[in-house]
Design goal:
It contains nine helices and eight strands. By secondary structure, the chain is an alpha/beta fold. It is globular, with a radius of gyration of 18 Å.
């Protein structure tokens, strides 16, 4: 199976992918969220942390959704998003296109315990949209709708990306929505998690990343990834823990 990460602008490169060629899309695009500049109780270190994610906190152009729908055989897409992006995505896929949808949450149990006039920022959201006729595979262990774990500090340090998702989570999503040999597309590749999960699951993958440093790190990660017998692991009685 071939998995390939391309360096470039996803809004442009996706136009080179043919109509009705992909079986599934898994994307973690920039979230739309306020990046505060005040130092607050955590001082300068926290302010610098905000600056680190500012470039990926301005959301994304919904135009690319039209392209993703075009390249999909049928709508079968996972989109990680902030709560501010949920309503526009529901409008696009559910109201306008009549898709079924499922919310999935990644809950982090070691977030910074500050909640001034708000709830804790302990959850990230992934919305799954599929049109009528799209099958959902998997089992009771891979089809859960919430995951609980620590923040992904180890992967942040290892791959140099500020917002990597757990490999097991992405692997479950792909396992549930594709079969071996299917083509998965990720237009916001980041640390390359989708491509690595596809390699482990014997799926093809086209991934795109515009940041040169993230691209280099993700290509090295993909090349170093070993094809594992994860299908047997996922379908066994051994539950994947987060």
């Amino acid at each position: 199976m071939r998995q390939k990460i391309f360096l470039g602008d996803s809004y442009k490169l996706i136009k080179g992918i043919g109509d009705n060629t992909a079986d599934c899309v898994v994307i973690d695009p920039p979230y739309l969220q306020a990046v505060q500049q005040g130092t607050g109780v955590f001082g300068v270190k926290k302010k610098l942390s905000y600056k680190h994610i500012q470039g990926i906190s301005n959301g994304f152009d919904l135009f690319i959704l039209d392209e993703l729908v075009r390249v999909l055989k049928k709508i079968n897409i996972y989109i990680f998003c902030s709560k501010e992006q949920i309503i526009p995505l529901l409008d696009y896929f559910v109201i306008e296109r009549g898709c079924y949808w499922t919310p999935i949450r990644w809950i982090k149990d070691n977030v910074v315990p500050t909640c001034n006039n708000k709830y804790l920022s302990d959850s990230e959201y992934c919305l799954f949209f599929r049109e009528k006729g799209v099958k959902l595979y998997g089992n009771c262990r891979t089809k859960k709708t919430y995951y609980i774990s620590h923040t992904n500090v180890a992967d942040k340090k290892k791959y140099g990306h500020p917002t990597p998702k757990p490999l097991e989570l992405i692997r479950n999503l792909i396992f549930n929505s594709t079969l071996e040999g299917d083509l998965v597309i990720d237009t916001f590749s980041g640390s390359g998690t989708t491509a690595v999960a596809c390699k482990e699951l014997n799926r093809r993958c086209i991934a795109i990343e515009k940041d040169k440093n993230f691209y280099k790190s993700s290509v090295e990660r993909l090349e170093a990834a070993t094809v594992l017998n994860v299908k047997a692991d996922i379908t066994s009685q051994q539950k994947i823990q987060f």
